[in-house]
Amino acid sequence: MHTSTALLTDHYELTMVDAALQAGTADRASVFELFARRLSGARRYGVVAGTGRLLEAIENFRFGDAELDYLRAHRVVGDRTLDWLADYRFSGDIWGYAEGDVYFPGSPLITVESSFAEGVLLETLALSILNYDSAVATAASRMSHAAAGKPLAEMGSRRTSEYSAVAAARAAYIAGFSATSNLEAGRSYGIPTMGTAAHSFTLLHDSERAAFEAQVAALGADTTLLVDTYDIEQGVRTAIEVAGTGLGAVRIDSGDLPVVVARVRQLLDDLGATRTRITVTNDLDEHTVAVLAASPVDSFGVGTSVVVGSGTPTMGMVYKLVAHQNDSGAWVSVAKKSADKVSVGGRKSVRRSFNPRGVATAELIFLGDGPGGEPEGTERRPGHGDHHREVLVPLVTGGAVEPGHTGTEGIAAARERHRRRVAELPAVAMSLTRGDPAIPTEYR
Amino acid sequence: MHTSTALLTDHYELTMVDAALQAGTADRASVFELFARRLSGARRYGVVAGTGRLLEAIENFRFGDAELDYLRAHRVVGDRTLDWLADYRFSGDIWGYAEGDVYFPGSPLITVESSFAEGVLLETLALSILNYDSAVATAASRMSHAAAGKPLAEMGSRRTSEYSAVAAARAAYIAGFSATSNLEAGRSYGIPTMGTAAHSFTLLHDSERAAFEAQVAALGADTTLLVDTYDIEQGVRTAIEVAGTGLGAVRIDSGDLPVVVARVRQLLDDLGATRTRITVTNDLDEHTVAVLAASPVDSFGVGTSVVVGSGTPTMGMVYKLVAHQNDSGAWVSVAKKSADKVSVGGRKSVRRSFNPRGVATAELIFLGDGPGGEPEGTERRPGHGDHHREVLVPLVTGGAVEPGHTGTEGIAAARERHRRRVAELPAVAMSLTRGDPAIPTEYR
């Protein structure tokens, strides 16, 4: 793996820089905006995730000798552009939705203000990270609500590519999951990791009892024993015989879970293991989690569905030039004019409005405005008991990443922000059916 | 990014090693099998991809100080296991389907024979890579057929996470795409890259004409001009005025493509640009590519749909212990017994059978057998004009990766193998509807 992120981008970003440098337009001050025209999957709200990863990736967006050699050998750009790229580092401003916040159609999630050339280079990388991470976080947020307070662990590493798995663990944690199976996510992001044994461990041993004895000897009686390799009822009995009534938990990975779980709870109680927990892990998604939340399940492990966004593996975000200066220094708002892909040009600021009970009522997008002059969280009271909150926050200023958005500090802040922001949404936001956004986007 | 791939795995793989080392069962000779119970998305055939990446990742699967420090600090395993991990390198045998081949339900795509501990550690990594890469390749293969010989470029980097994008470009290339927009895929895997300009480049300039002039000055008249930022017909006229009738291509990224493409072809011809090609890139998938293949389109750029597997972002493959030796050295076939997740225990070999016309008729899985003693491609003629071919190939022998499967050599071989193997399938394999596998899997 290369440390530089500079080639995690599309060929045409570099040819555009090449042509703009020759034309003398590369230095025009420009504003790019990353947004989604709609909520993919007819979700009721989106969850912003990946912002901290993007800021870290921008810090490593450098063209070193290895990158320049490749571009030179394959004649992607000319010598003048190679020289320019060698000196590249993003020196502009970025503001946007803070990670963990919710978003709606048209929300300007990331706004990049810089020269055209500096900003256009970040297009592919920004979209890759935000589109994937937000798809996972949006699905995970629905699951977190469906679980009704019972803990969820992300266990989907095997069902997405090996580095997506690490990003997915991070996004799910921000959206309310409490742990992951992925060790690299533990190392890179400080997320709690968990796991005990698979069916192969039971099958390796000469009997289920021998496998349970081996696991309890190594991991203690507080471990989680997987009881469904052969017969679940017998598995539970053997588990308690081996570990005693202090067994931490049993895991069930197959069968008709609502029925099986009720039987296992009864059996555990009958055996005196009243504090042994039940965790389930069988191809769960937000719908099955919602059904099981009312059963005597204690925790959930979610795999495939969370890492592939539960039917919506990407959020359809785009990155568009919305304004630039012309040669006389005047700002020009721009937007593509085709009938089926409408964009709204110009700089924007955003306020979320709330009713007197503190429930969000609309996402207000103000056109022709810079970012809010007031910090995130500034509240205004326009009368009638309603109030507004500024949504956009500075992320990069003069090329320097603002503190608090990256690393484990950023993840913790995003997780807490997500919890608070989702709680402000109207009840319809929690519907698991497809439908309209929970609050309207209004342009002012 | 860390060079080691050893933490791209699930916590429980390590706790299983920890417990098995304590129990004295870690060294039992074992056979693990990676397979899919069904073809996700009701595809007619699957395409094996990621094998070369997996072999490269196994070579970097080492626990260095950084990995061991993390595991120690978080008490994932005990000291004895840390010492064992420090010396870990896979020393067993791996055989399987060669990359680019097609597969069916139950096909043993990867078989790992080693000690339990050595083999179990590779579970998550193997599944991550094969599940994602094969999902992309399977979708890309359908698109390649739908394009009826017209070239396809993979342009979906922005719609999947930044490293998945690189893997997706590789998988799509193996399945018949001819290029990618992703520069890292160009550098890492030698795949041809392409791209010229986005709408932002047109919008940056004071007029569409000025943008086209800038692009032609930098990239030459043989470039591809994006003509749909404002009005397509006017865009085409301006493009030919600026570049001349030697313009390489026009790109169309919006509108009702079959109608628009026919009009643009007529207009180009009327303007004398009879050799200027038309490329289209508007949210295409295998279905829209099939519709457009009969129109005067010259090439396709496919984005979102290919990198997310066109509705099937993961192939549902699993990695199961199918056999192990007991303490007396006898081999024991094992399989989970639950009703809804049937596995077939034991070692397997595979032959694909063909009718006298060379059309594949069945995937024959022989139980209780080792890998085929004959090399891939060995043909047998059991009579009646039918014949068989051995499917499995050695991938790792005694810990050493077999030549020909990794790097650019492996990719080229996989791309050629894919072309030949798909051509042997019966016509129903090319149906884009959901349905049964193109040939049955038969256990012998």
From TrEMBL, chains A, B:
Transiently phosphorylated on a His residue during the reaction cycle. Phosphorylation strongly increases the affinity for substrates and increases the rate of nicotinate D-ribonucleotide production. Dephosphorylation regenerates the low-affinity form of the enzyme, leading to product release. It catalyses: 5-phospho-alpha-D-ribose 1-diphosphate + nicotinate + ATP + H2O = nicotinate beta-D-ribonucleotide + ADP + phosphate + diphosphate. InterPro entries: Aldolase_TIM, N/Namide_PRibTrfase, NAPRTase_N, Nic_PRibTrfase-Fam, Nic_PRibTrfase_pncB, Nicotinate_pribotase-like_C. The keyword Nucleotide-binding does not apply. Keywords: Glycosyltransferase, Ligase, Phosphoprotein, Pyridine nucleotide biosynthesis, Transferase. Its EC number is 6.3.4.21. Residues 377-387 have a biased composition (Basic and acidic residues). GO terms for molecular function: glycosyltransferase activity; nicotinate phosphoribosyltransferase activity. Residues 7-131 form the Nicotinate phosphoribosyltransferase N-terminal domain. It comes from the Bacteria. Residues 152-343 form the Nicotinate/nicotinamide phosphoribosyltransferase domain. Residues 368-387 are annotated as: Disordered. Belongs to the NAPRTase family. This is Nicotinate phosphoribosyltransferase. It comes from Leucobacter rhizosphaerae. The lineage of its organism: Bacteria, Bacillati, Actinomycetota, Actinomycetes, Micrococcales.
